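user: At home tonight, take the chain set out below, taking as long as you need, and be ready to discuss the fold:
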Amino acid sequence: MFSSDTPQVSSFFNELDKGVLLILQKFCAPHEFDMPIIRASHQEHGIPSIFLEFDLAVPLGQFRSRIEALVEMLQMELV
């Protein structure tokens, strides 16, 4: 199971300096179980992230809007 306390994960978060885009196919149970823990770890470390989930069809318009929002948020942090 994923844990933010492991040295590998701490090292990974230290290398992140911008943000994280998480993409997951719906109903992919093995990865779906880890997602809340991963997202909580990002929040704990102050790393902005968004979570995109798709089914058979990829909602490109919605994804574009959410990714643009993340990019704008990251740009505001640089100012």
